[in-house]
Amino acid sequence: MSSPEEPGRDAPAAETSRADEPDGARADGPGGRGAEDRAWAPAGVASAQDVRRRLAAALRPRATRGQLLAGALCAALGFALVVQLQATQESGLTQLREPDLVRAVDDLGDQRQRLTTEYGELLATQQALEAEGDQRQEALRSAEQARDAQVLLAGTAPAVGPGVTVSVLDPDARLTAIRVLGTVQELRDAGAEVLSVGDARVVASTAFTDAAGGLEVDGTPVTSPFTIRAIGDPARLEATIGIPGGVLDLLENQGATVLVQRQDEVRITAVAEAPQARVAELDPDPEAAGDGG
Q: For residue 18, what pLDDT is reported?
């Protein structure tokens, strides 16, 4: 029969046997070493698990009030930059106030008026230059025509044009210079512009003289057969020559045979020497002559 104090005597032995167990056996129990550490940690001293938890909490990033304020400022600044960029890309007029817009419209109106005025002035200048150019061209054409007319009248250049040819056959050399001159005068009165007799050009100062075996025109011998060439209106020239009782009848009455033919192209290659002025000269101031004729 056991006494009541036997359990008390057995307790130390149990504690001794627990102390003798290996560390691993103690850790495998419920709660492991961590529970035992917490159970056996002295008061006021943190356990290893608490230290690890506090260390992890300290290393975890935390958003402070300053960081949140800085982030908000950066976001606001980025938004402002985007808005400014869009506003810059848009038309500047949308950013102007109403007075500025009115002033801009007035400036555009003034600029348009100036451009319109400049355009009108340039157009007037262009028209004046074109008119001046046309006048110069017309003056040049008139001068060329006058020169050509003077050359033709002076007989110093060959000529070509429609007209008639009068072929004369005078085998007995009975035609006189006065008859041939009369024929030339009739053709000239009928509108002949250029005339020649044989190889001699006929101009205002041309002289017709009788010579042995024929006649001379400005010293050039003209013998039968010869041809009178006249440039002008062919129909009018032919009608003038063929008038009854006219020069054609007079030539035939002197024993000549005359043949008049219209020609679409009459070429006169004979030329006269250009006359030389011996005394007269051009007047440099013709208006100063007054009524002197």
A: 43
